[in-house]
User: Fold these one by one.
Assistant:
Number 1:
Amino acid sequence: MPASGRSPGLETALENIGMIELYHISKQYQEGQWALMDINLHIKRGEFWFVTGPSGSGKTTLLKIIFREILPTRGQIVIDGINILRLPDHKIWKLRRSMGIVFQDFRLLFHKKVFDNVAIGLYVMGIPVKEIRRRVFNALRLVNLHQKMWEYPSHLSYGEQQRVAIARAVVNEPQILLADEPTGNLDPELAFEIIGVFKEINRQGTTVLICSHDKELIRHFGDKILFLFKGKIIGKEVQPFSRK
Amino acid sequence: MNNLWQYRVRNLLSATIIALSFLIVGVFFSLSNNLQFLASRLAENMVVAFFLNPGISAREQARVEEVIKASPGVAHVKFVSREEALARFQKSFPELEDILKNLGSNPFPASYEAVLQKKAFLSEEALGLIEDIKALPGVEDVQFNRDWVKKMQSLSRLARAIGFFLGGILILASFFIISNVIRLNVFARKNEIEILRLVGATNTFIRLPFLLEGLSLGVLGSALSLALLSILIKLFPLYLGQSLGVLQEFINFRYLSLSQCISLIIGSALMGLLGSLSSLSRFLKI
């Protein structure tokens, strides 16, 4: 029996269930300008995907639609079996709690310590303080920042701030981890280290979707890649097994 | 509380403005209370004095006494002789002894003092009876402080009305102050709100601190105004002490009643809550 306690048959069935399913998704911001056009994508539970393409290809729009920051103009999107477009506004929090999101600009609170920045997602869930301490410590250990737990983000380097943002995204053990250019301004060595962290999180069962235009990184780590150009899918590359 | 402390200067300033607004309301309500109290003190002393003509005959005097005693609403009647009236004056105003000496004779007339029942005091019927007694032979004049009581009561009503009017305007102003402070706080914490939304905070979780802030500002403002009013009421008699003279004993400055204090605090808390809500509904789209 697997660690989850489910039967092997059920495990296999669950693995084949789509975690993120996009059906004919299109997004138009202004008349005549389509940010996304007829996107169909089926990401299974526990997969590790890269979405790549030049600036303006629609990568960020795609992510925003997945975490329901914006609504698509057309199409349907199903997350873990739930059509999120039918989710009323006052219930979006349920969807967001199943996701971890890492932004290119980190979006850290600079007046709060690293601990509080990471714990914010747990505070909103009403988790007991003792449990929060344990989870925050583990998340920070995962990104190798547990020794800087009581420092302010402004005292950390760029790469460390990025890792705090990752720790915040994974601390509530989300089913899906979304990252928008998480290695945007990092040197190659640090970028590899960060993606290594994402891979580690993925190994623990989290479905990961990373938007990046870093070809070197994608060549090295990408086993499932979606290529976007001017809002359209121009290619998919799917390796049967994970590379790293 | 953390949020209140984080923007303490802004919050303290707005609480002070709210306090001053409520203080003005409180002053008028307190004034009204004091006038009302004064009126009731005067009403307690419901004596009608019927001054007799010095040349009144014994028969006339007996008739006057009989009519007064028979009048409905009269609790009891006391005869004050000329000597007794003089003695009372000497006791109350010893500094005016010289004037009396210069006069040479007792200038005070004898009188009947009728103590009225409280109900009868302000009735029109009593007024009619007094007019009838005044018309009796041997009665020279009537002293009756009913007009004072009525004046006090209307002044009290006026103060209360001004309190309500100014209060309405100032409470509305406080509402906008709180609404704007909350709006500034929402803008100042825009990033935090954004992150809270992304990590799955419910609308209530995001709104609650702002609602509590508005509520606290309202309560803080009204509590501060009650404290200031209490200081004012303690200082006012000290300031006026010398000029009040004999009245100082009579005028005892009164604070707001407990129910008024509670109403003020609940009202301002409610206003703070509504101010926050109005700001959140306009500026915090979740």
Number 2:
Amino acid sequence: MKEHNRLQIDRLDIRAGKQDILRSVSLEVSRGEILGIIGPAGSGKTTLLRALNRLLDLDEGLVVSGDIRLNGLSILDKGADEVDVRRKIGLVFSVPTPLPMSIFDNLAFGPRLNGATKIAELRPRMEASLKSAYLWDEVKDRLSEPAANLSGGQQQRLCLARTLMLEPEVLLLDEPCSGLDPISTAQIEEALKVLKNDMAIILVTNNVMQASRVADKTAFLLLGELVESAPTQEIFTTPKDKRTEDYVTGRFG
Amino acid sequence: MIGKLFVALTGLCCLTIVALVAAILGDIAYFGWERLSLQFLMTSPEQGMAEGGIFPAIFGTFFLVLLMTIAVIPLGVMTAIYLHEYAPRNSFLVRWIRLAIENLAGVPAIVFGLFGLGFFIEFVGRGMDRVFLNGQLTFGQPAIIWAALTLALLTLPTVVVATEEALRAIPASHREVAYSLGATRLQMVRWVVLPQAIGGILTGGILAISRGAGEVAPILFTGAAYFLPYLPKKLNDQFMELGYHIYVLATQSPDVEKTKPILYSTVFVLLALTFALNFTAIWVRSRFRRKLRMAK
């Protein structure tokens, strides 16, 4: 296989006016890995994910410098098509955001934009995506129901499945389990452990324990600065920076 | 003590309004009902408006409003979509367009009528005659198409404001989800924004229609006729219209006393028409709200 689904973030700077949101952040993640990003609120974690998915284009007044490369090609380049980037680098938001339509239509939304309209073509992908998101058994008989009928945890797994319908090379998750019950949380974590075999995964989380459970590598962001990034084991047992240690042991606000 | 007095005062004000509405409606219903019949709705005026029905005016009103709707809905909806979905937030251009729309809403109806006469008939119509028809008088005179376009201008703010409101009610997260799944802006508008805004757009459209159906001043110079022995068939025909017909019956009739019952019934029909449209708007709005709430 020629591509490794490799995402490289190279000295990424994001500024809003005079204020730095991210300062020279360099990170890397490939297929087979989950990169956990931890850090207190306001550290720039969400902004980082939005930059990777080019959703930052929608926010006005931000200056981005540095580079982000997918399989060696810059996604910030003038020549890079943001629609194409968003298909390859899927994003799951922190709040479940089903669109006001049926479960089926939610799942079919991405492929349909790309011209895949045949049910026969959509069905197998749907089943695979829903199974990957541990949701198939719960919704297989009610695909035509409004997505709003699902519980919060089910909705979030639907959003994960919806992103998987695009068969992305990189999967970004922005605190996907905030506000979910422990069972849904466990299901999403299980799903990610399997999915990393097919794609690179970045998991932003407020929950330090979640990073320790599922992430292969963990990065600690603090006020826009990448304090430390290392294999998860190291971050949690022998952190190099005092601030990392304080944060992962909970001594830090 | 003062508190109780204030409550009584506010209550009295409400009561006054209710009493006024009841008096107007009651009067019109009581006197208008008498003359009302299927025949009244389906025949032409006769003997200098003192006999017969109002069919040409009803027909003209529907034709006029139909043409107006065809003009105002696309223009208004597209304007709102540009302002809310495409234009950069709070740019000079957007503020300028919004200001223009707000001012348009404040222009008196009679001024629209004069504008229609000056712009549509004298400038556009005459121009068309000169360029395409060797100066033969065809479009350069009052006609239903010019009256409809004048009304469309008058009701444009209603449609733009209602559509923008509907667009504003759609959560930003829905737009971001569409983008994150690889939608272009046009696809996002088509598949996420429009389906959710359609209720608001319809409501605005119906309110514009009900406003347009009741206006007389804009069509006074642009195409409404006192009396016509035929129905309008072409875009450059003149037409009879309910509101204008009421004005004619009330002021231009040779025997005002004799036309009074017909006047009452005509007012009754016009009111019934506008109320029906308003209630339809309310019904459509609540229906779509319920549907959206269920889907959210």
